[in-house]
């Protein structure tokens, strides 16, 4: 709330028209990026996040009309899943600036992000790609993708209320199966060696 109270509101907030509101949003997010670290990568990450938020605000009527035409307004849960997936990928795409060492590295990642995908499945390159991610085998990669899909689904379900009360309504045997599955997933996929949190690396 500090950025809202001491930057966004004093600059006029959402008063003064759409253009001024978008200017304020982009500026505040750029400063928020600078707060994460004194590097242009963080500034660009914050500014791009603000730009995407402005695009979201401007295109909201068009997206609602498109959802209505596609019939997604009649199945809000499926619509929420699509929205969650889209938000995740867009935020991850912009997050490349956040994790890159410098702006040049970020643009290099963006250039290579859309090339070489067809070659990935030839001559064992997919296995090498999985190993480069620090995964022990290809099966672990697909397991990680499955867990990611589950997390996205949970995020979508949480929009309709907390999950814990729903789990409590399940039979005891079903709840304990879920508990053991989560414990095994943590033991199998968890990282237990010393790894500094990303914010401690600034």
Short description:
This protein has helices spanning 2-8, 18-36, 40-58, 60-70, 76-99, 103-113, 125-132, 138-158, 164-168, 172-189.
Please tell me about this protein's structure.
71% of the residues lie in helices and 0% in strands. By secondary structure, it is mainly alpha-helical. It contains ten helices and no strands. It is globular, with a radius of gyration of 21 Å. The protein folds into two domains: 1-115, no CATH class; 130-202, no CATH class. α3 (40-58) packs antiparallel against α5 (76-99).
List the helices and strands and how they pair.
Blueprint: H1 2-8, H2 18-36, H3 40-58, H4 60-70, H5 76-99, H6 103-113, H7 125-132, H8 138-158, H9 164-168, H10 172-189
Mean pLDDT: 83
SSE sequence, one letter per element: HHHHHHHHHH
Q: What's the alpha carbon Rg, rounded to whole Å? A: 21 Å
Major pleated sheet: none
Number of strands: 0
Number of domains: 2
Our count of helices gives 10
Distance linking N and C termini: 22 Å
* Main structural class: mainly alpha
Share of helical residues: over 70%
Shape: globular
β content, as a range?
under 5%
Features:
single chain, about 200 residues, mainly alpha, 2 domains, 10 helices, about 0% strand, globular
């Amino acid at each position: 709330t500090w950025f809202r109270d001491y930057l966004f509101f004093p600059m006029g907030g959402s008063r003064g028209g759409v253009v001024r509101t978008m200017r304020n949003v982009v500026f505040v997010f750029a400063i928020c990026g600078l707060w994460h670290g004194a590097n242009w990568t963080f500034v660009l990450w914050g500014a791009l996040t603000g730009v995407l938020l402005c695009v979201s605000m401007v295109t909201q009527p068009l997206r609602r009309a498109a959802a209505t035409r596609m019939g997604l307004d009649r199945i809000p849960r499926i619509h929420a899943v699509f929205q969650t997936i889209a938000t995740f990928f867009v935020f991850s795409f912009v997050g490349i600036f956040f994790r890159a060492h410098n702006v040049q590295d970020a643009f290099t990642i963006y250039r290579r992000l859309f090339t070489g995908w067809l070659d990935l499945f030839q001559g064992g390159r997919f296995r090498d790609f999985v190993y480069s991610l620090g995964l022990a085998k290809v099966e672990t990669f697909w397991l990680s993708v499955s867990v990611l899909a589950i997390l996205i689904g949970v995020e979508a379900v949480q929009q309709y209320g907390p999950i814990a009360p729903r789990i409590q309504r399940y039979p005891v045997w079903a709840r304990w199966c879920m508990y053991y599955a989560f414990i095994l997933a943590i033991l199998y996929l968890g990282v237990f060696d010393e790894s500094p949190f990303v914010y401690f690396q600034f």
